[in-house]
Each structure stands twice: as C-alpha cells, then as structure tokens.
Write a structure and sequence with these properties.
This protein is an alpha/beta fold. The chain is built from twelve helices and eight strands. The protein binds erythose-4-phosphate. Erythose-4-phosphate binds next to helix 7.
Length: 229
C-alpha cells in the first residue's frame, strides 16, 4: 500500500514526510482554498518540501475537455517533478483523459462513486482512479464494496490503472479498502497519525520502562547506556 497525504498544509506535510513512508500529496480545490494563499505559490512550496520524485496531485477545474486539457498542460509546466492531474470523471473528462494520455500527461480520475466510472476512466488511459469512500457511505452506498468491485474489474480486464482510495473518516475504512484491493490511499494528516497511535501500545511502553528502571535504574533506560553497564 502506498500512502499519500490529503492536505495542502505545508507544516503538516513537512512533518509527515519526515516521519512516515509518504508517496506524495493529493490536493483538491477545497483543500487548497483552506490554506488562504495564492495557489501556485502554495503548490510550488509543497513540491519543494516533498521533492521531485514524490507525486503531487493537482485538480483541474475546467468543464469542457478543451479547458481541462489546457489546465493539465499548465499544471505540468508550472510544477516540475512527478505531477498528476486530477479530473472529476464526466463525459468531457473522459475525452480529456484520452488526449492527455496521448501526450503522456498522467491523470487521476477523481470524484468516483461507481465501479463503471472507474472502468471507463481506466480504459481511457487514467493512471489512477479515486473512489470517494466516505462520501459513498454517506449516500447510503458501500464505499468499500465499490473499491472491491473496481479492483475486480481491473483484474478481469487486465488494466494497469491503480486505485487511489480517497475520502475517509476513520481508519477502519482505510483497513477495509486495503483488504479490498486498493493499491494506494490518501488520508488527512490526523488519520495518518491514528494509523500508528494506539493507547494499549503507549501503556505497554510505560510498563516496559517502569520494569526496566526498577531493575537497572532510570538512567539506564536506553540501550547505549545499558551497554556501558
Ligand atoms: C482526494 O483528494 C479527495 O478529494 C478527498 O479525499 C475527499 O475527501 P473528503 O470527502 O473528506 O472531502
């Protein structure tokens, strides 16, 4: 599973890139406006923080295929490194994906609610598809089942397109989509932290430390000090 940060908060991105195995950063218009900064300056700073090899996802806003293609070319020119253009899957978007694929501009089909949207985007050449797990659940659908069906379809038709599952509200949803076949997930910073923070683990650490200090003393609490004994 590859892990992406679903945020444009540069402080949190810098922290998470240092601590976690991060494959890149995904943004969308709502995430960018939250930062209240000129968008290009913000995206360039994110690129600087993550380096040129990690993927940066930027969403096009145009409605017609021509507008989308123009935006995608602009995004590619402005942001060096591995930059992927996100396009909400509509009929115009599918036409744009075909054009951009010919130009070797990588695309992610986003705002996906059904397996067939994902299948068509993949057949048109999208490198990734992003099903919106929690938003599907909120429509009384089953986000995990949608991911599972997309994975099945991609396997039946031997498609190389990867699933970048998005829109999560808890880490059980994350575990479920990983088991359902999503190769990658994008998570808000608080959920990334929750993947490894578990109260029982913190309690165990305290218990180990107390027992160790009881025998060797509090100043022998790390291995380097222990070696000097
Ligand atoms: C991915 O980039 C999506 O835009 C994002 O995960 C949507 O998440 P939300 O449903 O929490 O807004």
């Amino acid at each position: 599973m590859r892990l992406y940060i679903d945020s444009a908060d540069v402080k949190q991105i810098a922290h998470l890139v240092e601590y976690f195995p991060i494959a890149g950063v995904t943004t969308n218009p709502s995430i960018i406006v939250r930062e209240k900064r000129p968008y290009l300056e913000l995206l360039k700073e994110i690129r600087e923080i993550i380096g040129e090899e990690r993927e940066l996802f930027v969403q096009a806003l145009g409605e017609s295929s021509e507008e989308i293609v123009q935006e995608a070319r602009f995004i590619q020119e402005q942001l060096p490194g591995v930059t992927i253009v996100k396009i909400p899957v509509t009929e115009e978007a599918i036409k744009a994906v075909k054009v951009l694929t010919k130009e070797q501009i990588p695309v992610l089909g986003t705002a996906i609610y059904t397996p067939l949207q994902a299948l068509i985007a993949a057949e048109a050449g999208a490198k990734y598809v992003a099903p919106y797990v929690n938003r599907i659940d909120n429509l009384s659908g089953n986000g995990v089942k949608v991911v599972e069906d997309i994975a099945k379809l991609f396997s039946i038709y031997n498609l190389k397109t990867e699933i970048l599952a998005a829109s999560f509200k808890n880490i059980q949803q994350v575990l479920d989509v990983c088991l359902a076949g999503a190769q990658t997930v994008t998570l808000p910073p608080d959920l990334i932290a929750k993947m490894v923070s578990y109260p029982a683990t913190a309690n165990d650490i305290e218990d180990f430390k107390t027992k160790w200090a009881g025998q060797f003393g509090a100043d022998q609490a790390v291995l380097g000090n222990y070696a000097k004994v």
